[in-house]
Amino acid sequence: MEEREIMLTVEGYNKLEEELKLLKGPRKMEVAERIKVAREFGDISENSEYDDAKNEQALLEARILEIENTLRHAKVVDDDDVSTRKVGVGTLVTLYDYEFEEEIKYGIVGASEVNIEENKISNESPVGKALIGRKKGEEVDVETPGGIAKYKIVDIKRL
């Protein structure tokens, strides 16, 4: 099975590396200590603290594997390689939304860096896909679950 490339900004890559360090170090030690303490309560077959700690350990290990896989297949978009001539991963795009008659800004990032609170959308999302490769001044129609959204690209900057 062919693994697909995972787009990440330098910031996103660094955040994942930091999270991985935390999970493999202090968090893993905390969970191991919880398991040790829970074992001391006696019969583990009816020990909810032990079950909770083992479940937490399984979730922790799954997240570690997920991050390691993401980092292994990451294509990091270097800040110096980000062009402001066209929309791409690592750009901040200002759009004019015709329906709501207002400007909105979206940071285009890889799928694992999406953060709705910071208006960071995936390059794989409907809006992200429609914007990739477009230039300032172009109008873009995006098919969304709510219908067709019409935007004009007002500005493109580095994220």
Helix content: 25-40%
Please count the beta strands (DSSP E, at least 2 residues each).
7
What profile does the largest beta sheet have? Answer: 5 strands, mixed
**The CATH top-level class label of the largest domain:** Alpha Beta
CATH topology term of the largest domain: Chitinase A, domain 3
Number of helical segments?
3
How many separate domains make up the residues? 2
CATH superfamily membership of the largest domain, which one? Answer: Transcription elongation factor, GreA/GreB, C-terminal domain
The CATH architecture name of the largest domain reads Roll
Order of helices and strands: EHHEEEEHEE
List keywords for this structure.
single chain; 159 residues; alpha/beta; Helix Hairpins; Chitinase A, domain 3; 2 domains; 5-stranded mixed β-sheet; two-stranded parallel ribbon; 3 helices; 7 strands; 38% helix; elongated
Would you give an account of this structure?
With 159 residues, the protein is α/β, with parallel strands linked by helices. The protein has 3 helices and 7 strands; from the N terminus they run βααββββαββ. A 5-stranded mixed sheet has the order 5-4-3-7-6. A hairpin with a 2-residue loop joins strand 6 and strand 7.
